[in-house]
Amino acid sequence: MSKSWSKTTRYIVLILVLIFIVAFVVAANELIVPLAISALLAWLLNPAVIFFNNRTNLARHWSVLIVFFVALAVIIAIGVTLALLAPSQIHNIADDIQDIYFVVFEQLEVMLSRPIVIMGTELHLQTLIDNFSVDSATLMRPDIVWEWLIAASTNLTWILVIIVSTFYLLQDWPRLREWLITLGPEAYQADFRRVYDEVKTVWQRYLRGQLRLSLMIGFLTTLILAGVGMPGAIVFGILAAIFDVIMTVGPVIVAAAAAVVALIAGSSYLPISNLWFMLIVIGIFVLIQAVENVWLRPRIMGSSMNLHPGVVFVGIIGALSLAGIFAALIVVPVLGSTAVIAHYIHAKIMDIPPWPDVQISSQLPPDAPEPETYSMMREP
After folding, report:
1. What are the sequence ranges of the domains in the chain?
2. Is 107 helix (H, G, I), strand (E, B) or coil?
C-alpha cells in the first residue's frame, strides 16, 4: 500500500506545481492566443454539432467531422472567391480613381497650396510633402524580405495549430471536461460542474448580447446611410453588422469600403461633391462607433452579463490598449466568468452556501460520455 503524503509535503508539491504552471504559461505565452481562438471557434461550432447530432442520430465524432469540414470548406471558398475577384475589383477601382483624379486631386492640390497660419507662422503642407520621400529600394532589402518570409511561415503555422486544435476540441471536449472535473476531490465535483454550467451560461449570454448589438448597428447604419443617399446602404448595413464582432478593425474595413464607394458614386440626391460626401460617410461611421462603444455596447453587454456598464466599458478599453483586439473581444465574458468563480470562492471562504436556493445534482450533464470512455485519460 502506498504511503500517504504528509500535509507539509502536499502543500510543497502544490506550490511547486503552481510555480511550474505559471512558468510554463509565461514561456508559452505565444501559444495562448491561438489556443484561445481555437476554443472560441470550437464553442461557436459546438451548437451546430449538437443540432446535427440530434437530428441525424449520428455519433458525435461523425457530426464533428461533417460540421468541421463544411465550415472549413465555406471559409476556403470565401477566401478563394475573394482572391479571384480581388484583381478585377482592384482594377475597376483603379480605373474609377483615375477617372476622378483630375477632380479630387486638383482640389487637394489647391488646399495644400494654401499655407496654414499658426500664431503668425506659415506652414506650407506642400513643402512638407515634397520633402518626404521613400526609397522603394529599402523595402526590398534581403533582410526585410527574409523577415517577411519568416512572418508568413509563422502565421501559416499558427493557422494550422488553430485548425487542428479546433477539431480536437470539438471532438473530445465532453471527455476532456469530465476528465478535468474528476481531477478534483470527489466531494467537490458536483460544485465544479455547477460552476462550469454557470460559466457556459455567461458565454451564451455574451453571444446573445453580441447578436443584439450587431443587429442594432446594422439597422442603424442602414437607416442613416439611406438617409443621406448612400448607394448600397443595405449592403453596408449588413457588412457593418457582420464585421462589428471584430472591434476597431471590422468597422474600419467597412468604413473604408463605404468611403471608396461614396467618393466614386456620390450621393443619390444630396447636391454636394463626391469628396464632401465621402467625408460625411466617414463621419457617420465615426459617430456610430462612438455611440456604440460609449453607450450601446456597455449597456447591452452589461444587461446581458449582469455587469455594470462602467465595468464593461473600462474592461474593453483596457483590454484593447494592453492586449489587443482579441483580448477586447473576449474580455466581457471573461469578466463574467471571473465573477462566477469569484462568487463561488467567496462563498466557500465565508462558509456560506454558494447556491442556497438550488440543490446541486451530482448527475452528469446530458452530453457527458459514459464513464468507461474516460479510460483514455488514465493509465491502462
Report:
1. 28-85+146-183, 186-353
2. helix
Q: Is there a contact between 194 and 348 (Cβ–Cβ < 8 Å)?
A: no
**Residue 122, strand partner residues:** 117
Q: Which residues pair with 117 in a beta bridge?
A: 122
Question: CA 289, CA 252: separation in Å to the nearest integer?
Answer: 10
Query: How do residues 96-113 score in pLDDT, each as one tens digit?
Result: 555 555 555 565 566 556
Of 378, 345, 17, 371, nearest to 191 by C-alpha is 345
Instruction: Measure the CA–CA gap between 162 and 217, rounded to whole angstroms.
Output: 29
pLDDT (tens digit, 9 = 90+) per residue, 354-370?
887 654 444 445 454 54
Structure-block grid coordinates of residue 255: 468604413
Cα–Cα nearest to 217, from 241, 249, 248: 241
3-state secondary structure of 122: strand
Contact 297, 226 (CB under 8 A): no
> What b/e string do you get for 61-74 counting C-beta neighbours within 10 Å, with b at 16 or more?
eebbbbbbeebeee
Contact between 269 and 242 under an 8 Å Cβ cutoff? The reply is no
DSSP H helices in the chain: 7-27, 29-56, 60-99, 101-113, 125-131, 142-182, 189-227, 233-243, 249-265, 274-291, 297-305, 309-322, 325-349
